[in-house]
Amino acid sequence: MKRRDFVKKTTLSSFATLIGTELVFGSKMLEGYTPLALQDPDPFKLFNKHKDMVVLNDKPWNIEAQAHLLDDKITPNLSMFVRNNGLLPEAINSKSWTLTIDGESVAKQKTYTLAELKSKFEQHTYQLTIECGGNGRAEFDPPAKGNQWTIGAVHCASWTGVRLRDVLEDAGIRSNAVYIGYHAIDKHLSMDPKKEPISRGCPMSKALQDETLLAFKMNGEDIPLIHGYPLRLVAGGWPASVSGKWVNRISIRNKVHDGTKMTGTAYRVPCEPVAPGEKVKDEDMCIIESMPVKSLITYPKTGAIINKEKSLNIRGHAWAGELEVTKMEYSIDFGSSWTACTVEKPANRLAWQHFSATVDFPKSGYYEVWARATDGNSKAQPMLLPGWNPKGYLNNACHRIALKVK
Amino acid sequence: MNKEEAYRVQVRKLYRSLMLFFTLFVITGGGIMYYMYHPDGLDFNSKSDAIVAVPIVEDEDRIENGIHMKTGLVEAEGLMIVVNNCTNCHSAKLVTQNRMNTERWNATIKWMQETQNLWDLGGNQEIIVNYLVTNYPPIAKGRRMILTNLEWYELAE
Lengths: 406, 157
Prior knowledge:
The complex is a heterodimer of chains A (406) and B (157).
Chain A: H1 2-30, H2 34-37, H3 43-46, E1 54-58, E2 61-64, E3 82-83, E4 98-102, E5 110-113, H4 114-120, E6 123-131, E7 154-163, H5 164-171, E8 179-184, E9 201-203, H6 204-207, E10 213-218, E11 221-222, E12 232-234, E13 247-253, E14 268-270, E15 285-287, E16 294-299, E17 304-306, E18 312-319, E19 325-331, E20 339-340, E21 342-343, E22 353-359, E23 365-375, E24 399-405
Parallel strand pairs in A: 4-13, 17-24
Antiparallel strand pairs in A: 1-2, 2-3, 4-5, 6-7, 7-10, 8-9, 8-13, 10-11, 10-12, 14-15, 16-18, 18-22, 19-20, 19-23, 21-22, 23-24
Chain B: H1 3-37, E1 63-64, E2 67-68, E3 73-74, H2 79-86, H3 92-97, H4 102-115, H5 124-135, E4 153-154
Antiparallel strand pairs in B: 1-2, 2-3
C-alpha cells in the first residue's frame, strides 16, 4: 500500500508540477480575464453588445456597429463600437483608482482619487460624437493597413464627468504648455510592460474646451469596462483615439505629446494630398484633429422592399467634428438631384444631429438613397472616396442604402 | 539478507530509477510542449500571459473544409508557420482583414519588429508573405464599390 501511495504521490506531484503550473495560470486568468483568453469567447455577452455587431478583431477586441444599430438618438452600449489597441486591463478597483496630473508644464504634480475628482469639481453631462479616425478604412484602394472598419465606428453617447480644464487648472498649467498626453493601464499585445498600447492626447486648446471631460459615467451609469471604466478622457469631434480609456495619468507637455500612436504615421494623414498608393515620409504626415463632416442613414436598414404607394420615412444622424451640420440632403438618383432633409440642432456642441425626410419614389425598381451633410464651412461629404492616405483615415464619403420599390 | 529480501531491494531500486526516469521524462516533455506553444514563454522576466492554458485543448490545429478552425486561416502551403508566428500577439482576423502585396507585407513585418516586439522570422518570412499574398490578395475597389451582400426584407411601416 505504501508503495502505491508513493506511486500516486510521485505521479501526481510530477504532473502537478506540469499541469499544476498551467492550472495556476488558468485560475489567475479566471479572475476577470478568462473569457477573453478562451478559444471561442462570446464578445456579445461579454461586453453586452447587440448580436448584429461585427467583430473585426478578437485580439485586441475591435467590434463595429451597422448603420441600423445606430438609430437611437443617444447610442446605448449595445451598439457602441469597440476599438482597443491593447489587452483589456484586469482587476480594477475604483476605490483605489487615482489620476495623476504631471508633465513638464504642470505647476505642481498632483494626484486625485476618483472620489476627490467627483466631489471637488463640478460635474457636467454632454452628448459627444466619438468616431474612430479609421472609420471607413475598408473602402480605400489601394487598401490601407489596420482594422477594416466600414461605417460603424462611431457613436454618440451621453458622458458625465468633470472638465479636464478644471482639473488641469487645479494642478496648475504653466505658460509653456502645448499639449496633453494621457496614460492608461491597458497592456501591450506583446505583454511587454515597458510598452504602452496607446498614449495619445490633444493640444491645450482642445483640452481646455468645456466639453472635454474626464468621464466616469456613460449614459447615466458606470462606464462599461470595455469603454474605459472607471475613468475615460472624452474629447468629442476628434478621432476616438484622443478619448483615452482607463486613464490614470495625464501629462501636461511642453511639446506635442510623443506617446505611442502620436508619432510616425499613426492617426496622421499626408500634410499635402498624395496620389493613391504613394509613399509618404513620416515627417510629411500631420496629426488628425477635428473629424470631417459625415452622416449615416440609420432607418430603414439597407435592403428594404417597400410599396410604391407609400412614402418612405428615412432618418439618421449627421456630425461635423468641431463644427455644426448646417444642411442635410438626400438623393435617390445617384446625386443628379438632392432634396433637403430636416436637420435638428445638436443637443450640445459636438453632439450628432438628427435628420429625417419623407421620400417618394417615381416608379418601381432598384434605388439607392444617398445622404449628404454639409458643415458650417460649406464643406459637404463627397460621393466618392476622399483623398487616399496611407493609413486609410477620414473616409467621410456619403452613406447610402439600397431599396426596392414594388 | 535472504534471497527474497535481496530481490525486494532490487525491485525497489529498479522501481526508483524507473520513477525517476518517468518524472524526468514528464518534466522534459512538458517543457518542450510548453516551449513549442510559447516560444517566448521561457523568458521568466516577463509576467506570464493569460493564454497558457491553451495547450490542454485537444486537436487545436484541426482543419475542417480547408479552414484551420482555431484561427480561420485557409489551409495552404505555409499555414502552420503563419499560425505559429502571426497569431501569438494578435488575432488572425487582423491578418486576413488586411490585403497587401509582398512589398507592403515586408514593410509591415519590419514595423512589427521595430515597434511591436516581433522576432526575426528568418527563412519563414518568405513563406509567410507568400502564403498571405497568395491566399489573401488585394481586391480592387476603385473609388466606390457597389453595394453587395444585401439581405432583402419587406419593410413593414
